[in-house]
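Run log // design_07
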């Protein structure tokens, strides 16, 4: 399976405008984590999750297939960034207490990744996979936004996007699953923030390359956005500490 890298070309935009994950999510994951020696943040992107993990773990290994993404990643003394695919790393066997994948599992060969996770995990290690679905703001803006998402951008989304829309329910997860509560991301964004987020989409970048212009400004002119607005992203999590098949 070929590796899909849709974010290297706009890594700076991606780093600037992607929403951050709530403390409640990390607290829930850490509640099930036994030891805090070493964590692997797989497909780390701009290092957002790795940075949080570095405050709790002695060592954090963060990997991605994009050098450009890692160039925009936040640094910490106990984070080691390397370019490696999710499905095959150079890590030794049985060394991680926690393995995380945020908003990236849908790009993986999951069978190969699960085998790799089992190999590098310590006994009783936690595997946490999460992502966020389509956001909402208010009924009036949402009406225009969903049209932009489905119609304007529809042909430019990779097929893997449907896995996110279905909150990974269509992705095999062959482990004993820990029940999880509902989570969400809530951010207070200006119109520029929201426009930046839309521009960071892989679909938008494909549209720009195909058509020679950014469709986001035209969309933003159709909506009434003054000051700060609350943007809510439903957040989903799949979690296990029984890494055996």
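design_07 sequence
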């Amino acid at each position: 399976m070929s590796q899909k890298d849709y974010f290297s070309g706009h890594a700076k935009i991606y780093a600037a405008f992607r929403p951050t994950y709530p403390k409640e999510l990390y607290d829930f994951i850490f509640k099930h984590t036994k030891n805090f020696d070493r964590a692997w943040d797989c497909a780390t992107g701009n290092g957002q999750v790795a940075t949080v993990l570095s405050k709790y773990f002695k060592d954090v290994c963060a990997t991605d297939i994009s050098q450009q993404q890692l160039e925009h990643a936040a640094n910490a003394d106990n984070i080691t960034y390397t370019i490696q695919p999710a499905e095959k790393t150079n890590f030794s066997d049985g060394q991680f207490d926690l393995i995380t994948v945020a908003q990236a599992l849908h790009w993986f060969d999951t069978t190969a990744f699960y085998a790799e996770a089992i190999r590098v995990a310590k006994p009783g290690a936690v595997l946490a996979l999460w992502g966020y679905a389509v956001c909402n703001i208010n009924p009036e803006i949402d009406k225009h936004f969903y049209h932009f998402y489905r119609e304007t951008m529809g042909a430019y989304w990779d097929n893997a996007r449907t896995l996110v829309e279905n909150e990974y329910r269509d992705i095999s997860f062959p482990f004993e699953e820990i029940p999880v509560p509902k989570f969400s991301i809530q951010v207070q964004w200006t119109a520029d923030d929201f426009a930046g987020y839309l521009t960071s989409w892989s679909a938008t970048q494909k549209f720009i390359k195909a058509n020679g212009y950014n469709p986001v400004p035209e969309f933003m002119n159709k909506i009434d956005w003054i000051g700060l607005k609350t943007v809510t992203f439903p957040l989903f999590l799949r979690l296990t500490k029984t890494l055996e098949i």
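The radius of gyration is 18 Å.
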